[in-house]
Structures are given as C-alpha cells and as structure tokens.
Design brief:
The chain is an alpha/beta fold. About 40% of the residues lie in helices and about 15% in strands. The protein folds into 2 domains: about 280 residues, 3-Layer(aba) Sandwich (Aspartate Aminotransferase, domain 2); about 130 residues, Aspartate Aminotransferase, domain 1. It is globular. It binds pyridoxal-5'-phosphate (PLP).
Length: about 425
C-alpha cells in the first residue's frame, strides 16, 4: 500500500460484524479465564493485554498504523513527545554512557539531554548538524551509545543529513535516533536512509488538530544489539524473569525492552481516548501535511520579497541552503513551519505578533490553524543568548506555523501585521 492508503487503512482492521471505526477500549484492565494464562502474559510468553499502562487495544492499533507508516517492525506510544525521547534514549543508555545530539533540536529535547539526563549520569555532546563527517566524528567517545537529530529541527528548521548521521552512528556500532515530528512519515521516512529508531511528538502534525498530547517510538528492527556494546539487550534482565531481549524477541528487542522495562517503571502511558483522537488525525495526515507544505512555501516566498522582513528561513525555499537535502529526503514538501526575522529585532517581532488577526499566538505548532510564536520570549526563554544562537534561534526569530486555511488569507494577515 502507498503511504496515503496506509494513513487511512492501516492499524485497526475489523473482523466480520465488528465496529467499523476503531473502538475506544476505555478499560485499565482485562479479564482472563485462568491464572495460568495470566502468568504466561506476565512472562511475555503469549501476546495479550493485561494492564493499560503496558498495552491497550485502542493504543495498540494506532501503534500498528504508525509502525506501518514509518516502515518499522513495532511502535510504542507514550503520553507525550518528551516521554518518547526520554524512553528512546534510556532504553539504550544508562549512567556512565554518552549521547551525541544535534544542537538544532527542540528546546525540550535540549533540556532533557543537557540538564535532566545529565543528572541521571547520561552525558551529552551537542554538535552542529551541518559540520562535516570528520568534525562530527570527534564527538564520539568510547561510551557513546546513540546519535540523535531531528529531520527538520523545531524551531531552527535545519534539515538533518540523515545518511551522514547514520554513517556516523553505524561506523561506531551505535544506533541513530531521528525525531521525525515536523516531517512526518508522509514527507520523510528516516528508516529508508539508515535511521534505526524514529520518535515523534504526535501532538503536532500527526494529531494535527491540537487536541491531544502524545509521543511514539518506532523501531526499524534493523539495529544489531548483539555487537557487544549493549549488554542490557544480550544479558538476562533480572527485573523481568531473566529475559534476554535479543534472544527472545529478535528484531523486536528494542521496542519490547522499552515497553517491558521503562513503560512499566516510568508509566508515561497514553490514554485510549487520546489514541482514538490521534487515529482520526492520522487518517487525514497525508492530505494536511501536503497542504501545510504548499501554503508554507507560498508564505516563505511572500516574506522573502517583503522589505520589512530581515531574513526568512524555510528549507523548501529555492534560496535555502537546505534545499538539496529537502529534494533528497522530502521531495513532497518541507512541512509547514517558516521562521523569519522582523526588521528592528526583538521588539518589532513582538509588535508584529501582537498585530496578527488570523494567526494566533500559541506555544503550539503544527496544527490546522495558523499560529505564531516568539521563541526567545517563550519556549526558549530559559536559554542564554549564547545557547539560543547555538541551537539556531536568534532573538528576533518568529516561528510561524502555517495552517491549512486558504493561503491568500494567511498572507493578507501577515501583510497587515508587518505594516502595523
Ligand atoms: C513538541 C516536540 C517535542 C515534545 O513533544 P510533546 O508532545 O510536546 O511532549 C519533541 N520533539 C519535537 C521536534 C517537538 O516539536
């Protein structure tokens, strides 16, 4: 099936006489006829549901759909994108280990790795994703366990050269984790370019309507965890009856370990209701993300030709230095977020934002309605000016999330706000 068909048809497939639409299994718990069968579930001997923290049918069907969209062998949904990043990294790394991460990542990822995981003993080196292979290689240490980057970085909008990063990871026998939130699997499927694990904040385009928080981890099944660097995968897990993940689960070792250890212990499980809403969003993702991309390109071209605008950053612009990477990794479009600087700097940016009428000021990005944000005074306000510049966010930067309205109305709104 093509990606558009997968958006609509994958996941829940009703049998004769069952509900046509994915039902919401709003139940924490599941009933069995014998304690013996229940025991087998707990031993991971048979497949089934026992407690919604670990698995739930509504959630499970949506996980199947997302795994199919990305081309992975399995997926696990989480309560938020932050939880997905946390569990994706902690399934691989523990105290004493080290991660290499693109400096152009979401502010929440930057803090999670740079502050909170450091407190847990997992060290990080942030690298400039545009550096050449040789320079990037210098960041790898003997205890580096993973490399992480974003397909299109939020909000810097740098485009990750996925093949360069997968080579960096694989030359060092470690996996590449790609946060594919902004591109979505409709525009880019990182596994096709060598990524091993994909994560998403489903709160963005996947949900698409800004109604439910969520995250997901998708496993390509391609990484060889038996290469000697990952004893947690190849030695018995005492916390799970001595299971050896690579022996027992093969290609599903990573995603099973994520669920059996960390979802069990951290408990950041999605609700069935939110999974249902996410599924509704996914059914139109292929239509929305193309429209977002088309509108964003027109908005970026308008801004580029407006004399009140200091600079425009949209990777799909012909003038963008990332255009060759866009053509290679996401030929259908470069997603819906445009950033730009209003001439006059920080204060003019705030004045411009306050003058918008169609576009609303919200923290969120990547839903059907056009919205705008000034990161330096919102999402990134914990950062110093130096850190801001390091992750590609200048003080005058406006992050403009182009919705799926008629683009003429969006451009007219921009024009009147710029004039104001
Ligand atoms: C929003 C976002 C996250 C965090 O997701 P939440 O669902 O808000 O927890 C992670 N990565 C990227 C690229 C994001 O845009």
């Amino acid at each position: 099936m093509k990606i558009e068909t997968k958006c609509v048809q994958e996941g829940y497939k009703p049998k004769n006489g069952e509900a046509r639409v994915l039902p919401i299994y709003q139940s924490t718990t599941f009933k069995y006829d014998s304690s013996d069968y229940m025991g087998k579930l707990f031993d991971l001997e048979v497949d089934g549901y026992f407690y919604t923290r670990l698995a739930n049918p509504t959630v499970g069907f949506v996980e199947e759909k997302i795994a199919a969209l990305e081309g992975g062998v399995g997926a696990m949904m989480t309560s938020s994108g932050q939880a997905a990043t946390l569990i994706a990294v902690m399934t691989i790394a523990q105290a004493g280990d080290h991660i290499v991460c693109s400096a152009a990542v979401y502010g929440g990822t930057f803090n999670l790795l740079g502050v909170t995981l450091k407190k847990f003993g997992i060290d990080v080196t942030f690298v400039n994703p545009d550096d050449d292979y040789e320079t990037l290689s210098k960041a790898i240490k003997p205890n580096t366990k993973a490399v992480l980057g974003e397909t299109i970085a939020n909000p810097a909008l740098t485009v990750l050269d996925i093949e360069k990063f997968s080579k960096l990871a694989h030359d060092n026998n470690i996996p590449l984790i790609v946060d594919n939130t902004f591109a979505t699997p409709v525009l880019c499927r990182p596994f096709e370019f060598g990524a091993d694990i994909v994560i998403h904040s489903t709160s963005k385009y996947m949900d698409g309507h800004a109604v439910s928080l969520g995250g997901v981890i998708v496993d390509s099944g391609n990484f060889d965890w038996t290469n000697g660097k990952f004893p947690e995968f190849t030695e018995p897990d005492d916390s799970y009856h001595g299971v050896v993940y690579t022996e027992k689960f093969g290609k599903l070792a990573y995603i099973t370990k994520a669920r059996a250890q960390l979802m069990r212990d951290l408990g950041s499980a999605p609700s069935p209701q939110n999974a249902f809403l996410l599924n509704l969003g996914l059914e139109t993702l292929h239509l929305r993300i193309i429209r977002h991309s088309e509108n964003a390109l027109k908005v970026a071209e308008f801004l580029e030709n407006n004399d009140k605008v200091a600079w425009v950053n949209y990777p799909g612009l012909a003038s963008s230095k990332y255009k060759p990477l866009v053509d290679k990794y996401m030929p259908l479009g470069a997603s819906g977020v445009v950033s730009f600087g209003v001439k006059g700097g920080r204060q003019q940016a705030v004045k411009f934002l306050d003058s918008l009428k169609v576009a609303a000021i919200v923290t969120h990005v990547a839903d059907a309605r056009t919205c705008a944000l000034h990161p330096a005074s919102a999402t990134h306000r914990q950062m110093t000016d130096e850190q801001l510049l390091e992750c590609g966010v200048s003080p005058d930067l406006v992050r403009f999330s182009v919705g799926i309205e008629n683009v003429d109305d969006i451009i007219a709104d921009l024009e009147q706000a710029l004039n104001a």
